[in-house]
Amino acid sequence: MLTLLRTGRLHVLGQIAEASNGCLLVDVTPEDAAEDGDGDGDGGADRAAVRAIYKPQRGERPLWDFPTATLAQREVATFVISDAGGWGVVPPTVLRDGPWGIGSVQLWVDHDEAARQIVELLPPGDLGKDQVAVMAAELSHGEQVLVVHRDDEWTRGLGVFDAVVNNADRKGSHLLVDPSGRHFGIDHGICLHSEPKLRTVLWGWAGDPLPENEIARLNALADDLDDLDSELNQRLTPLLTLRELQALRHRVAEMLETGDFPMPPDTGYPAIPWPPL
């Protein structure tokens, strides 16, 4: 899949209009797929094609607190860390050239709207046994609700992963369930800053001890990050600055030292993204 995403032809289908940055829906076909008679390549789009999201650097809006034209690299770096650390929460993602220049290309995930969602709004008092509350909220028409998320092994792993990559924008809508029941997290363009910026709706375990399996993952990741010749470092070095890599190592070491899920910041930086869902 990574080879296809990296080398296949990109056939642009349209733009995701509600995205905050340039975001194009594409079909990716193998380089040797047969073209149709008019030579525009559309004939190969339905043979061995996969759907993907292409986010070119030139479509990125400048942000005051992130370096310009780095969001695509961060999308890829979070996949690399998810893959190397065994979380498997980020769909396959590569950095490559395309019709609008260099950008990230990520495998499309069909979201099952009928599946039980990971983050939900519930009436106060309706918290389930396998859910944890994040905050009370009020909707625009005055209805009182509770923002909750699931309390299971996958979601706890995602909470650890978000802390590792310093995710500054973990909204509920960034969590997908495909028709087969697999879970994914998407939209990681504003991760891996060298300064603390964790902003998430997954605060349900703040201050709780880390699960043993997550401690084992963090130890293995720390070993990989400390080995400058490791495959992980070779994959991350072209994507992140030295300072960002050092901050990544520090976050992993700090979580292992405390043994706990991080607490929301007390620096005035918002702990919840807007909108949270």
UniProtKB/TrEMBL annotation:
Top-rank taxon, per record: Bacteria
Entry keyword set: Kinase, Transferase
Gene Ontology terms, MF aspect: kinase activity
Keyword Transferase listed: yes
UniProt cross-references to InterPro entries, sorted A to Z: CHP03843 (IPR022292)
Protein name per Swiss-Prot or TrEMBL: Phosphatidylinositol kinase
Species: Arsenicicoccus piscis
Lineage, opening ranks: Bacteria, Bacillati, Actinomycetota, Actinomycetes, Micrococcales
